[in-house]
Specification:
Blueprint lengths: L14 E7 L2 E7 L8 H8 L9 E8 L2 E8 L9 H15 L3 E4 L6 E6 L2 E7 L24 H7 L5 E4 L3 E6 L8 H9 L9 E8 L2 E8 L3 E3 L3 H13 L6 E6 L2 E7 L6 E5 L2 E7 L1
Parallel strand pairs: 2-3, 9-10, 11-13
Antiparallel strand pairs: 1-2, 1-16, 3-4, 5-6, 6-7, 7-15, 8-9, 10-11, 11-12, 13-14, 14-15
Length: 282
């Protein structure tokens, strides 16, 4: 009999699912029947040198008589939002209930999800745009040109980023060619910039034919194949500086997402694919 690795002892008996949304990959753990996620367990599951490896670790727990999504980054830190994981959780719950739409909890509030053909769509809520909502460490009259470290901007030929929170903080840099930017070099510097007390997700975005080409350095994770909240933040940021309308396709390294920012409600909806790779019980 194979022994359970010590970091996962608190999860023995819990079902797990290895999934991805547009390449953004997760280990989803069903905690509704018991078990507890620990920081050590999250780090073990997130470690790509181990038997799993992923961007985020997701828990499904019962909160207020309904399912709720919990989120840990690969480094064991907790996160407030993860759009692609929300779509994966929605796929699991809708399949479980034979439903075409449902609501569930998350650290950032209630999420509404629905099927759109082969895609899963999630209402990501209203973007938060004030300095104290993102949050930033200093009061600013606007968040369209964030005063990050000028030395980093000069060294990498960047203009100040646009700030947006989608339940987690984002700094979006608009560039001529997102694929050519050395994001792995300056992403960590922006993530830990003193302007961001909770660290920040750093993205580079370029506009081509009405679509956004997006690459993201995710706080607590690093370079990721896709980031759902970054896709939402990039569309919001592009509209705020009048580069795009209120909807667009976002092309990440791992796949395509479709983002719409409703003018009437102010809410952002994200749609895209999900994929199951593996399932089992710890």
């Amino acid at each position: 009999m194979t022994e359970t690795p010590a970091p996962l002892e608190s999860l023995e008996g819990c079902p797990f699912f290895v999934m991805d949304g547009a390449g953004n990959d997760f280990v989803v753990v069903d905690l509704r029947g018991g078990g507890a996620m620990t920081e050590a367990a999250a780090r073990h599951l997130g470690d790509r040198r181990g038997p799993f490896g992923c961007d985020q670790i997701i828990g499904i727990a019962n909160r207020d008589d309904r399912p709720a999504m919990l989120i840990w980054n690969a480094d064991g830190s907790e996160a407030g939002a993860c759009g692609n994981a929300a779509r994966c959780v929605a796929e699991l719950l809708m399949t479980e209930r034979s439903a075409e739409a449902l609501s569930f909890g998350s650290p950032s509030g209630t999420l509404d999800a629905r099927r759109m053909g082969e895609r899963i769509a999630v209402d990501m809520g209203r973007p938060r745009l004030r300095w104290d909502e993102i949050p930033l460490s200093q009061e600013l009259p606007q968040t369209l040109q964030l005063p990050v470290d000028g030395g980093v901007l000069e060294r990498y030929g960047l203009t100040p980023p646009v700030g947006v929170s989608m339940g987690n903080p984002h700094a979006v840099f608009f560039v001529a060619n997102a694929e050519a930017e050395p994001l792995a070099s300056f992403g960590p510097l922006i993530e830990h910039d003193a302007l961001f007390p909770d660290r920040v997700n750093c993205s580079v975005a370029s506009i081509h034919g009405g679509a956004i080409r997006l690459r993201t350095w995710e706080r607590g994770v690093g370079l990721t194949m896709a980031c759902g909240t970054a896709a939402c933040a990039s569309l919001v940021a592009a509209h705020r500086i009048e580069l795009l309308g209120r909807s667009a396709k976002v092309v990440a390294d791992g796949g395509e997402l479709f983002i719409a920012w409703d003018e009437e409600t102010g809410r952002v909806e994200m749609a895209g694919p999900t994929r199951m790779h593996r399932r089992g019980v710890f």
